[in-house]
Write a structure and sequence with these properties.
Blueprint lengths: L1 H16 L7 E4 L7 H10 L3 E4 L9 H15 L3 E3 L5 H8 L7 E3 L1 H4 L14 E6 L9 E5 H14 L17 H12 L1
Length: 188
């Protein structure tokens, strides 16, 4: 928890240094890996609204992928996209297509002097989760902090989870059940 808090505050500081403020949306296109956790929490510490995106995984469908991501980023009004080195070229294409998007950065280049948490209200946005778009264009679901906590509490209560339980999941962190059910539920 100490590592996560320290790293999240450093990410929040980096967002602040880039002019990203409370209520701004921050797109996160990371694999299910260690960097995802402090990046997501850092956006929350900064008072921002994280928008988890799935990373590209099929080279033969890259045009379709870019088109979907442009739609999501435009709809969300994302100010910054946090991604990883292997997809910088693809992510870079998005900057020129999304007017609100100021930059594409990696978590390791975003860290700065740790930032104090920005005060948020239960009615403030906690994240925007997009549908897969398997039956049409992806649609965003705006969750407030109150919505997110109610969802997590219901999950924990329904599964009778306790602090001694251990959770594992194959679901990726950009998936709602991977993010909320597997990570934030067990974190809570």
């Amino acid at each position: 928890y100490g590592w996560l808090w320290t790293e999240a505050r450093a990410i929040a500081g980096g967002l602040s240094d880039r002019g990203i403020r409370r209520g701004d949306t921050v797109a996160i296109m990371l694999r299910t890996e260690r960097h995802f956790f402090p990046t997501f929490m850092g956006a929350l510490v900064a008072g921002c609204i994280p928008v988890p995106l799935y990373p590209p995984f099929r080279a033969d469908r890259i045009e379709e992928y870019v088109s979907r991501q442009i739609g999501i980023l435009q709809n969300a009004g994302a100010r910054v996209l946090i991604s990883f080195k292997e997809v910088e070229r693809v992510a870079g294409l998005l900057v020129h297509q999304v007017p609100s998007l100021d930059a594409v950065v990696r978590p390791d280049t975003l860290v700065a002097e740790p930032s104090a948490p920005v005060a948020t209200d239960a009615s403030d946005g906690a994240l925007i989760q997009y549908t897969s778009g398997s039956t049409g264009l992806p649609k965003g679901v705006y969750l407030t902090h109150a919505n997110l906590l109610a969802n997590i509490r219901a999950l924990v209560q329904g599964l009778e989870m306790g602090s001694d339980d251990v959770g594992i999941s194959w679901l990726p962190l950009y998936h709602d059940m991977g993010l909320i059910g597997a990570w934030l539920g067990t974190f809570y």
